[in-house]
Amino acid sequence: MIEYRKKILGNGLRVAVNRDRTSKLAAVNILYRVGARNEDPARTGFAHLFEHLMFRGTRQVPVFDLPVQMASGDNNAFTNNDYTDFYITLPRDNVETALWLESDRMEGLDITPQKLETEKKVVIEEFRQRYLNQPYGDQSMLLRELAYRVHPYRWATIGLTPDHIAAATLDDVRIFYRDHYHPSNAILSISADLDEERMIELAEKWFGALPDRPCAAPAPPAEPPQTQARRLEVVRDVPATTLTVAYHMGGRTAPDFYTADLVSDLLSGGDSSRLYRRLVRERRLLSSVNAYVTGDADPGLFVFTGQLLPDTTPEAAEAAFLAEIEALQAHPATDYELEKVKNKFEANTLFGELNVMNKAMNLGFYEMLGDLSLINREVALYRAVGVEEIRDFCRRTFRPENSSTLIYRAGK
Questions:
Q1: What predicted TM-score, i.e. pTM, was given to this entire model?
Q2: What is the DSSP letter of 277?
């Protein structure tokens, strides 16, 4: 149970705070509601580029990391399809250093031609090293393009092509900054051993006077229902063939998200899970196997993936996946299986609540989803999932016409 208070400042900044009486550290997290889903299809990768640019200094603070280090702190950031997240941990008594730095770069980022060119090169090189020049690097990109037709989830956070970043102009990135990095598009969350009212006062002190730059950004286009099975086969210079089958499902706040997540754990949550036990240990078709949900804010994917052993054909692996789906529909789960995965989720949740950074991040995340109270209700929602909910989800979701199959074949 995470106790919290929240407030919306006059400029639209959402603030959520939690008092953690067990830690001497403070965690300051600021989430911007901008990710790949907010990009122009002709200018992708900008949210990730900005994750880099936000560390390049402001008019007041030329080197962002230096004050953090002087305050005995640590900081980092990440970008995904739905948002960009920046976080700092430091001693509780130095919490205002983090608030000062974050408020400063929300309004005063110093974007110069030299800084832009430097970070463009870094991001383009990252694109090449992680996605173009690495075994299996483009696999997730191919799956996205296969599964989505119109929604921005059809490209990865890194973007569709490095050419989009290479072509980015100073005006392009300044407009992107103006449109997305402002108070009403951000969520500030703090966890520390400080009075909650005091933390809200500090948020007001450092952020309250910042002007807002609201931008009426259009909502991403909704992905139309898939009505026909899709398939793609490619040949790459990789050590083993992989098979991936993805099915469309609801978004992170959909009623059956918890069912989907439990199903993924039933199938691949450890060495005793169904897929590993049957396809790796018993039938020896695959060397590794996984099933997971993407967990996106908008409707996402339920993904089966496995690496084939040399004597296994893609057809045999696909038939094995389908047989496990049919078995799941016929016999969803035993009481023991269900209790095991539910206990695992509850344990992970409780363990996460011991860390101030996890709490600050989760406060921001659930507020971004639009329902902060979910932070304390999800264990009960998982606990409520039963056999019939699993059977119904599997029958509605794992349909041939709702599938996208990628065969990533080893070859030269």
A1: 0.95
A2: I
